[in-house]
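Here is one chain, start to finish.
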Amino acid sequence: MKVIDKYNLYKNKYSKYIVLIKVGIFYEAYGEDVYILNNLFSYNIKEINGVKRVGFPISSYDKVISKFRCFKINYVIVEDDDVTRKKFNFNNYDKYVPTDLSLEDRINKVYDRLRVLKDNSNIIDVLDRLEEILW
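Its structure:
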């Protein structure tokens, strides 16, 4: 079974959960779940054959799960055929998935995120790249 098929199988069963699939030494998420990981961790979203994907190394597992727990976001971890599931009484999944944002809303969201990250040393590199694209 392809990884994306496995993801879709569990996503259909757990629609309001982040579904992470262990692939080698990484955990991967697909579909709308990539936006949550991007919002919380600034992980890069990659698109391969029309499928959006985000991955992180297993060494980041504790950090990721800790943040899911902190923000009360339901999640499912799939390793081989073993499934670990965590459900919170108040699931904040939808809070972190952008839904049909207008262009203006998307621009404002980027500005807000940049303001939050202004003390992050990596933001200078991001701004340099963004300025190259814009100018």
